Amino acid sequence: MTSRRRGLGEGSIRERRPGQWEARVTVGFDARGRQVRRSLYGKSRAEAVAKMNAAIRGLALVVAPASDRQTVGDFLATWIEGQTSIRPTTLRRYRSLIKYQLIPLLGRVKLAQLTPQQVNLAMRQAVAGGLAPQTVNHARAVLRSALADAQRWGTVARNAAALAEPLEVSATRTAAMRPEEARAILDAFRDTELEAVVGTALYLGMRQGEILGLRWDDVDLERKVLRVTGALHRIPRDQRSDPEVLFKILEPKTKRSRRTLRIPDPLVELLAGQRQRQREARLRIGSAWHEPIAGLVFTRSTGHPVEATGMTHRFENGLSRAGLTVRRFHDLRHAAATLMLASGTELKVVSTVLGHSTIGITADTYADVLQELHDDAADRLTRLITTG
Question: What's the pLDDT at 1?
Fold first, then answer.
């Protein structure tokens, strides 16, 4: 059944296919007077309706043309409340950038009078105050997204953030991991609760959330393959419909993030050991075992999901105790990529394993490694030609 309403800030609901409902909300009109609509999705009609109603409430607060009194801070504070279709971690980041960067810098500026020059000046002031250029660029991106909605709704005539110039960001280089360091890291966590987690990151280059969201239904140790079907996310406190539900598995951001990977033999052994330890823990504590998300490969000793922040601290402490260079957990993903490239794996294959949306992202991220490989190939060719 589809319900339809006409006019700005109104919407419709339809079932696209079993398990997926779409809510469409009219957010403005283009130059020809045609409706501009935004789609929101839910796994049930009730979820889609809730998202539609939240979007309409947020839209009702900002669709009118900016008055002489409406400030950038006022607009951003109401705009963020209508953002119901973005991931919890992304929404938390947006809220933080608005509260601590955008509102202090531009919050008192009249929305209708905001200029690209003011945005540029605010960005330079933020850097002068000690913020990293990349963080400032992220704040600008949030403002640009908010003003894009405002422009579609007729609230402002132009997008001042889009017309401002992003700051130049110097690439930060993480020292490449050598094979002997990777082996030392695996040895450092041998027979610990993090052994299989670290092994999964090093052997497969999976993201931390993908690893912590991995379920046994997606792992086939006999065929030596696993499927990446989602990632574990902690739900921000203000977004919990049930205070007892702290985590959920979210769909991958892109189609290429959903992928099937071959499990190398050493990792098969590590995952088999993890499954056995988990079974023993379940038997040991009996009825105290509790799985809010059933079938996770990596859990706490009670069955609960693993908190990413706590796991990262344990990883870094483990490296420190072993006398190794303290790295971020995310560096294991980079290590997997660089070691694959150094071993001669084609760039396209590496991109697929990592789940990058395009091969260009892989090429840009590992440009230094690729340049070293190209230089090495040129040196080897030179030696072959000159020495025969």
Answer: 40
Q: How many residues belong to the chain?
A: 388
Q: At what angle do helices 179-188 and 331-342 cross, to 10 degrees?
A: 140
What pairs with residue 296 in β-bridges? 215
Cβ(295)–Cβ(303) below 8 Å: no
In the chain, DSSP finds a helix count (H) and a strand count (E) of 16, 8
User: What's domain 64-170's superfamily in CATH?
Assistant: Tyrosine recombinase, N-terminal domain (1.10.150.130)
The CA-CA-CA angle for residues 10, 16, 19, to 5°, reads 110
Q: Are 119 and 160 in contact (CB under 8 A)?
A: yes
Fold observed for domain 179-326: hpI Integrase; Chain A (1.10.443)
Dist. CA 89–CA 308, nearest whole Å: 12
Structure tokens at 219: 């792992």
335 with 175: CB under 8 angstroms? no
Q: Is the pLDDT of residue 236 over 90?
A: no
Angle at CA of residue 202, ends 200 and 206, nearest 5°: 60
Q: What is the largest CA-CA distance in the chain?
A: 79
Query: Is the pLDDT at 219 greater than 80, yes or no?
Result: yes
Domain ranges of the chain: 1-58, 64-170, 179-326
CB atoms within 10 A of CB 207: 19
Measured CA to CA, the distance from residue 4 to residue 6 in angstroms comes to: 7
Residues 6 or more apart from 261 whose CB is under 8 A from it? 204, 206, 225, 226, 227, 228, 353
Cα 238 to Cα 98: distance, rounded to the nearest angstrom = 16
How is residue 12 written in tokens? Answer: 């419709």
Dist CA 97 CA 135 (whole Å):
8
**Beta strands in the chain, from DSSP E residues, in sequence order:** 11-17, 20-29, 35-42, 219-220, 225-228, 231-234, 247-250, 259-262
User: What is the torsional sign of CA 140, 141, 146, 148?
Assistant: positive
Asked whether the beta carbons of 329 and 313 are under 8 A apart, the reply is no
Reported as a single tens digit per residue, the pLDDT across 289-336 is: 999 999 999 999 999 999 998 999 999 999 999 999 999 999 999 999
User: Could you tell me the pTM of the whole model?
Assistant: 0.64
